[in-house]
Amino acid sequence: MATEVTVVRAYLSEADHGRRKNLMQEILNILHDQHRVRGVTVFRGIAGFGDTGEVHASDILRLMVDLPLVIEFFDEPSIIEAVLSLLADLIPRGRIVSWQATCR
User: Fold this and answer.
1) 3-103 topology per CATH
2) Residue 42: enclosing H or E segment and its boundaries?
3) For strand 47-49 and strand 55-57, is the pairing parallel, antiparallel, or unpaired?
4) CB 84 within 8 A of CB 35
5) pLDDT tens across 59-97, in order?
6) What's 64's DSSP letter?
7) Among 104, 56, 48, 98, which residue's Cα sits nearest to residue 77?
8) N or C: which end of the chain has fewer CB within 10 A?
9) 102, burial (CB in 10 Å: exposed 0-12, middle 13-18, buried 19+)
């Protein structure tokens, strides 16, 4: 049986911080503990850039790495709307994309 879901991608970097801890951890806590979202995956990129155009890449010569992260998750549209209202204060504007999909 097919179910309509909303899929969300949030674009971050390893150096992003939330209110109390690493932003990725804070988002995962919201998705898992507060809303029990059905599916969540965090992707760590090897390179990327954002609004500033500064390239962040994995480099053996660099001691500090600030690589791109993508958090992708999905659930019923009503649950995703509740999650997005919480994430709006944590994730900078323009770094979240979403679309409707069918879960089979």
Assistant:
1) Alpha-Beta Plaits (3.30.70)
2) strand 39-44
3) antiparallel
4) no
5) 655 555 678 999 999 999 999 999 999 999 999 899 999
6) S
7) 98
8) N
9) exposed
